[in-house]
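Q: How would the structure tokens look for this protein?
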Amino acid sequence: MQAKCALTVTFEEPNISARQKRFGQEGLTATYGACRMGARAWPLFGGRPATDRRRQTMTRRSSSLGALLLLAAQTAYAQSGSPIVPEPCRSFTPSDRPQLEARLRTTQGEEQSLGERRTKLLAAGGADQQNSDQVRTVETEIRAKKEALLDLLFSFECFRTDLAPDAALTRGPQETQQWVEVTAYYATNRNVIAGALPSERYGVESAGATEYGRVAVSIPTARRPGDMPLPAVWKFEARPDPSKHFVLKSVTPLTLDGARLEMADKLSRGKKRVLVFVHGYNVGFADAALRTAQLAHDLAFPGVPLFFSWPSAGRTLAYWRDEESIQLAGPAFDAFLDEIAALGASDVYVIGHSMGNRLVATTLTQRAQSGRAISNLRDLLLAAPDINEKLFREQIAPGIAAVRGVRRTIYASSGDLALRASKIVHSYRRVGETAGGPLVFAGFETIDASATASTLRAFGHSYVVDSRKVLGDIQDLITLRFGADRRRLLRNGAPPDAYWILR
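A: Here is the predicted structure in token form.
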């Protein structure tokens, strides 16, 4: 279908790769249009080398909604010349840095001393109550110091000088249709809050049963892939505007049989493909719904999108609580996968993000070991996995790698501040970080996405859903079914230690 030209822009950067040309990125004149697929409108990119000097400058500002590590990072468009400052950084000035450095040194020293004290107490042993009480007291103090280190680590990101603009934050083409609606289905083991607004129906506690349902999300068409604009308090936007913002329009609970019938009907009338998204730490139900819809829309996914929402507390300092909540969600997620396997889809794609990968990886490993692998699972994408590297290598990766017919991909980044913070908490390297070099696992393709992970958005942690280049790579993987060797990625090293670089 031919798309009308809505906007022509010449970008500044002269050095371009074949990959960038394909997606209309830096260094070329890109033509944008709108292709219609049912009720969905999605960007169509094409390009030709720049031949004239006319240039349209695009500027933008990033604004985080809430605090650190928020998967659903809020963004808003800025006026020309506005500084690019993440929301959590607006209270800092350059003069604050020396004080923060002093606090960091002091806190690190105190945390180290407490660790040494705990080691001595444990070495002393003894079953007396006094020794046990002392160990518990020291461990509580260590945890408090680690929380303080997390806050300081995020604060130091505000003083970086190497932050560059992210093209995914710029305003996209103007279209006649101001917004489109995306329907997604869900399963959750969150508790139900009686009498709450639809968007607040689910809380942060674990429920005894899993509830299924459907959400409807409106998405503005004047945006770029990866962008998820929400109402901004600093812009005095009290109410969401569907032409400007993502809006969770409805949350409709369904019986299990009702959900089965609806999803089966949709699959029978279109592509028999299912996309499953599992969110990470510090994410509420509404945030997960918006991100699932954005992911399905930006990938132009030709099937049924679903998400599993486990009861994350949605708070930065609730990391340890979320770790326990996701462990408790295992049986509910396992039962959810049984339902997915029985839907009759020809292809199932599972994307886990951050801490959500623990739930995905451990459950799939257990299913593989018990002979209950999902026969129609085609792709498993572990994005920014917050998993202990040794645990993954020794106990998880071998089981998943043994499942036939599944392409397994890990997206990792050196700019992922959240995983560096997780390493502070656990003292073990995480699978999704590349400090010291990307990690390679037998049976998995590792993609180093460091060059595409802007720290201006959710501190470099949500690149799998907000980086235009990563979304393009995932689209090639799912839609074209290309392996890493066919996706115009740069290979580094030789098998079995090779990994791939996305630029």
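The first strand starts at residue 7 and ends at 10.

The chain is about 35% helix and 20% strand.

Upvote if useful.
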